[in-house]
Amino acid sequence: MDIVLFLKALILGIVEGLTEFLPVSSTGHLIVVGNLLKFQTTGEVFDITIQLGAILAIIFEYKHRFAHIITHIGKEPATNRFVLNLAIAFIPAAIMGLLFSEQIKHYLFNPITVATALVIGGLLILWIEKRQTRCQPKVRSVEEMRPRDALVVGLAQILALIPGTSRSGSTIMGGMMWGIERKAATEFSFFLAVPVMIAATGYDMLKHLNEFTRDDLLLIAIGFIAAFLSALVAVKALLRFVAHKNYIPFAWYRIIFGGIILLTWVTGWVKW
Predict the structure, then answer these.
(1) Which helix (H) or strand (E) holds 19?
(2) Residue 271's pLDDT band (boundaries 50, 70, 90)?
(3) What is residue 251's predicted lDDT score, i.e. its pLDDT?
(4) Please, are residues 253 and 122 in contact by the beta-carbon 8 Å criterion?
(5) Is the confidence at residue 39, as pLDDT, over 90?
(6) Span 41-54, mean pLDDT?
(7) Distances 156 to 28, 91, 185 between C-alpha atoms, Å
(8) Using alpha carbons only, what angle is made at residue 133 by residues 129 and 139, rounded to the nearest 5 degrees?
């Protein structure tokens, strides 16, 4: 039993859960932290699997909403419109992911790309939040969203294919730029994460099924549970936060974190 390896799995699970739904890029953090910890186990399988733990936290937090959708789809116009909006927002990134996922993982999955995307994304968040102070939102709730609103969010989500950009960050900020109120954009991003991440995770798991080994099951279980619990905390906290505040603190976090990585790379302090 390698206690150090289990501790690394626990840390990465917590990192995944805390960052999956914040606009700071969970994939980017996993790449950077995994690189620092020199975490070597099942290739991509560990990262892929623990994402399901974070997604399960969203399903648990909104269990009554999902139950309502399942029981009322096809019967209630509002539910039908909501499901249609999710489908529309899901499609653009799904198509681009299928076409270019291998190239993106080969060329862009490295700490320097992540750091650059973190800094650029942070600057964009600062600009968008400043813009929000001068513009009144046109859509104030998820229920008010129209198919064209969902399409804009879906197109913004394409940017999240670049590691370090953040899926939640791109969808939330894209929605806010379009005129969706901050809390509504955040909630829609949460809901959209479920089909997107389940589809992406399922696809990757099938591709890497032969990499699963019995010895790694405990590591995966530790990371999965840690991701679920930490994501549950992060989702609840974020919803409370955005009800009264903006995303500027996350923007500065991105800029500082990404800047530190780039500084250590340029100076040679850390061999990324």
Answers:
(1) helix 3-19
(2) confident
(3) 97
(4) yes
(5) no
(6) 76
(7) 18, 12, 12
(8) 85
CB 228 within 8 A of CB 16: no
Q: Among 204, 148, 201, 149, which residue's Cα sits nearest to residue 175?
A: 149
CA angle 61/67/70 to nearest 5° reads: 135
CA distance 250 to 176: 15
What lies within 8 Å, CB to CB, of 37 at 6+ separation is: 8, 11, 12
Q: Are 133 and 44 in contact (CB under 8 A)?
A: no
CA 38 to chain CA centroid, nearest Å: 23
| HSE (side-chain half, CA atoms, 13 Å) at 72 | 14
Contacts of 209 (CB under 8 A, 6+ apart): none
Give residue 159's pLDDT: 95
Residue 245: count of CB within 10 angstroms of its CB? 10
- Average pLDDT on 147-173 reads 96
Residue spans per domain, the chain: 3-267
Q: What is the DSSP letter of 133?
A: T
Compute and round to an integer the Cα radius of gyration of the chain. 18
Tokens in use for 268? 């040679």
Q: What is the pTM of this model?
A: 0.89
Nearest partner of 70 among 60, 79, 62, judged by Cα: 79
